[in-house]
Design a protein that fits this description.
The complex is a heterodimer of chains A (189) and B (199). Chain A is mainly alpha-helical. Chain A is built from 9 helices and 1 strand, in the order βααααααααα. The longest helix of chain A is centred in the C-terminal third of the chain and has 22 residues, at 141-162. Classes of the chains: A mainly alpha (189), B alpha+beta (199). Chains A and B meet through strand 1, helix 1, helix 2, helix 3 and helix 6 of A and helix 1, strand 1, strand 2, strand 3 and strand 4 of B.
Chain lengths: 189, 199
């Protein structure tokens, strides 16, 4: 069989993905920033990036990128720096953020047609989901590098999707003489 | 290096030092465990991100047959039963044969990023070029997607005889695929895939 079919469902052990729950999750993330230090926030985010990198390393592209990094000076220097400054020890104790889910949820909120209705009646505290305790795992330099690569690609694609996938490589001319305001400014004097 | 030997510590001094060392170890361990506990508490009380679970409807295993030097195509279709948009980006793991050959297949996923509106269904095709030099055999791997932790098992039978299930189309294999014979060196892999996320 050369085809597989899936249904994307809500996690039966978690909260349903609705505009309301995603807004609540976003608000809770913002609110949590007031209760944690900047170091913890950065560490949790980087730990999440590293956890993503571990998963992506299992893919064909991810494994090749990881292997290539180990062969390059940058990869070796990064690992040396990581160990000398004990960044791996620091990140391994951090609760990893679900960076990919958060990014996809934020995109879904931007594309939601009922966002105005939800914002008129902000979700109550009972709508704010709480995280389950993620198991601690060692986070290495290569995990973070591969995770940054994957997360960066996803981020740029998400922004393009939110913008309606514009053709950025094509030239565009706006003739302000026709339908724009009067053009004035120091560059035109 | 010069070693200066001092008098051995007395019984009382040794016991006191040992007690001090044990106390220091205890405090250091207590600090580490406290930090782990507090961070665990922070995680448990922190906000979660509602996620997506991909449940297979059909095709628990992807199978295809191809000749070396051809191209094989696999399909993935996802229906969004959630109330908001979801994103799926399939990625293939390296494929391994029982003979010890690892095939870094460099699948071209089109589109690499499936944005699926609520109630809609979207599909992606994975085009995999089979290198002409690839030894015959059954190559096994996994199609990985965020939300399907175990992925979908993939088996591609590379046979030198014409494949009966003609899912493969005659096309010269791209130079993008890398084959690694264990032990040994990998062939060059150069081509890149268009943007998208591999998870």
């Amino acid at each position: 069989m050369t085809a597989a079919e899936f249904t994307a469902n809500d996690d039966p052990n978690g909260h349903a993905r609705t505009t309301r729950s995603l807004v609540a999750s976003f608000a809770a993330r913002l609110g949590a920033l007031g209760y944690v230090s900047g170091g913890d926030a950065i560490g949790s985010h980087l730990a999440g990036i590293g956890a993503l990198g571990k998963r992506v390393s299992a893919t064909d592209e991810g494994s090749r990128l990881r292997t290539a990094l180990t062969r390059e000076l940058a990869g070796n220097n990064g690992q040396a720096l990581w160990q000398a400054l004990k960044v791996d020890t620091w990140l391994s104790g951090m609760p990893p953020s679900a960076v990919l889910d958060e990014l996809r949820n934020d995109l879904a909120v931007l594309l939601a047609e009922d966002l105005d209705e939800v914002l008129e009646t902000p979700p109550g505290s009972n709508a704010v989901p709480t995280a389950t305790l993620a198991p601690a795992e060692p986070i290495g330099f290569l995990d973070v590098m591969v995770g940054l690569w994957a997360w960066g690609r996803e981020l740029s694609t998400a922004v393009e999707v939110a913008a309606g996938r514009p053709s950025l490589s094509l030239g565009v001319v706006h003739d302000l003489r026709v339908d724009g305001p009067p053009v004035d400014g120091p560059l035109l004097r | 290096m010069v070693h200066i030997v001092t008098d051995p510590p007395s019984e009382t001094g040794g016991a006191a030092q040992q007690l001090l060392r044990l106390q220091n170890d205890f405090h250091a361990r207590l600090a580490v465990e406290t930090m782990h506990y507090l961070r665990g508490l922070q995680s448990a009380l922190g906000p979660a991100a509602p996620g997506t679970v991909l449940v297979p409807r059909r095709g628990a295993t992807l199978r295809a047959t191809a000749e070396p030097g051809t191209q094989v195509r696999l399909h993935v279709e996802v229906a969004n039963a959630q109330a908001v948009h979801c994103v799926v980006s399939p990625a293939l793991s390296p494929l391994v044969a029982a003979s010890g050959v690892t095939w870094f297949a460099a699948a071209n996923v089109d589109p690499p990023y499936l944005l699926i509106a609520p109630g809609e269904t979207e599909a992606a095709a994975l085009d995999i070029a089979v290198p002409a030099a690839l030894p015959t055999g059954d190559y096994r791997g996994v199609l990985l997607m965020h939300g399907a932790p175990d992925g979908v098992p993939v088996t591609i039978r590379v046979a030198s005889t014409p494949a009966k299930k003609a899912v493969a189309t005659k096309r010269p294999a791209k130079a993008s695929a890398a084959v690694r014979k264990t032990p040994g060196t990998a062939r060059k892999a150069t081509a890149r895939r268009p943007g998208g996320t591999t998870s």
